[in-house]
Amino acid sequence: MAQVKSLRLNSRDKVRAVIEHRRKFAIFPIVCADHCAYLLNKNFKDVANDGRKLAEVLEYGYRLYKYDMVLIFSDPYIEAEAMGCELEYSPYPKLISNKGRSLTNAIKIKVLRLNSRDRTKNIIKSAKILTEKLDIPIFVSIKGPFTLACFLYGTEEFLKIVISDEMRARDVIDTATNFQLEYLKKLLMIPVHIFIGDPMASASVISPKTFEKFACEPLQILIKQIKSTGMIAGVHICGDTKPIIKNLDNLNADILSIEDITLKTKTLKMGGVSTLTLLNGDKSKIKKEIESALKEDFLILSTSCDVAVHTPVENIKTMVEIARQYED
Amino acid sequence: MDFDEIKKAVVAFETDKVKKLVREFLDKGIEPKVILEQGLVKGMNEVGRLFAIKEYYVPEVLLASESFYAGFEILTPLIAGVEKSMKGKIVIGVVQGDIHDIGKNIVKVMLQSSGYEIIDLGKDVPDERFIETVIQEQPQVLALSSLMTTTMIHMESIIKILNKRKLRKNIKVIVGGAPITQEYADRIGADGYAEDASGAVKLVERLLEINTQKF
């Protein structure tokens, strides 16, 4: 692993302070580029395909809500597209083709050749801009290898082969993991913290046994690489995580972003406020959820998933403002 | 005849074995409808039970569904008027902008194997297409799926159009998908919400007041 630049550990790094138990909580409703672009009336496709515009909308979100970290996330298909899958925007991207069985040939090379629609470079550009401009922790969201494998192979077909053709499934996962390791090298050079989103590895989708067999080790490999550079490694899995919570806790991540934060873990949890509460709820409901969440000893007070595009600005502001009242 | 063999082959997602057994049973003169009800449907019922108690997950259900359909496709052309003998007609689809259709496909197979005629509109379905199909097909149930907070707003707009055009009288609208909750379903005026495929079958039976397990 190449040497990274000096780490920006500063007094405003509330996330690190919570991880090290020097602070009870930090605040981050998962505000992503889609919500910010919507507020600014920007075309999402333009934002998702331009690193500078992506940085601009995310900076706007940070300055509007004043939370404690920024997550660079435009859509889940950055890596899949870079590896040759095709997207369509309407206005948000949808995966319209995958690599399917053609991946078999690609496995012979370590990493697939990036295609012309490689947006990882936009993410890197955006991360460089934001780390220079903002004095708070900057995270980049990448996909967990299991989820990336689903996108690459076609979700339904990939979920079938994890049972019916384990060898092939493992080949696809290895390809996804190798790609992410290369991508991580570039991100960690900036340097930025990393959140690995692996929604398809949720126990709402696969069994704990399948999780253990296919999703666990690739996540551990990525986390090890992130932490070897001193950066923070977070893992986000939505849906049901109860049956796999021990596996998640043993990944050695710094943060686990999960829906049910009452699950006991030694790893710092992130969550506490439902995205639907922010979308449809009122001040009293938001306050109630915050108060309940802050019963945790340490927490990144957050939403259980990324906030919906049309979430009212007032509700997100309310979440941050109420939470600030409970700060030390 | 031991229909249990077909049931077990569906549960074990042995697609080739299901096809072989179905053909063997037909060759022996067993009524296609009986093979469907006693073998394939019972197999999917068991898959539904295993899914509900979290012994089976999405991959296992997808594979079992493949086996079920392999047998179902052999039998349906041989069963005269099968649609008319069904419990009811359901139009199902994933709302506009959303291409995540695994959940919808699982709900579809569980409903189909429970005896409902299914009209599957697929994924990324425009609001107006749901409305047109409701007018044309006059189903008892409209089942809407969404996996994204960005697209679930279409559920509300579809219900509003149905209300505006006074199309709600003879149809129940049910909703489901990862970001959907009972609270959301109530708020948008849906008739029901189910957390998973087994729940969807029970919900439809409750809404249509169907008690029998038979086709």
From TrEMBL, chain A:
The name of this protein is Uroporphyrinogen decarboxylase (URO-D) domain-containing protein
Query: Where would I find the Uroporphyrinogen decarboxylase (URO-D) domain in this sequence?
Result: 37-326
Instruction: Please provide an example of a Pfam family that matches this protein in its UniProt record.
Output: URO-D
Q: Name one GO biological process term.
A: porphyrin-containing compound biosynthetic process
Which molecular function term from Gene Ontology is one that the record holds? uroporphyrinogen decarboxylase activity
| Secretion signal span | none
UniProtKB/TrEMBL annotation, chain B:
Q: Which UniProt keywords apply?
A: Cobalt, Metal-binding
Q: Metal-binding: present as a keyword of the record?
A: yes
**One Gene Ontology term, aspect cellular component:** cytosol
In terms of SUPFAM superfamilies, this protein maps to:
Cobalamin (vitamin B12)-binding domain, Methionine synthase domain
User: What GO molecular functions are on record for this protein?
Assistant: cobalamin binding; metal ion binding; methionine synthase activity
Domain named B12-binding N-terminal: residues: 1-87
Q: Name one GO biological process term.
A: homocysteine metabolic process
Among Pfam families, the record links this protein to: B12-binding (PF02310), B12-binding_2 (PF02607)
Query: Which intervals hold domain B12-binding?
Result: 87-215
The entry assigns this protein to a family as follows: Belongs to the methylamine corrinoid protein family.
Q: What is this protein called?
A: Cobalamin-binding protein
Q: Which species?
A: candidate division WOR-3 bacterium
Q: What is the lineage of its organism?
A: Bacteria, Bacteria division WOR-3
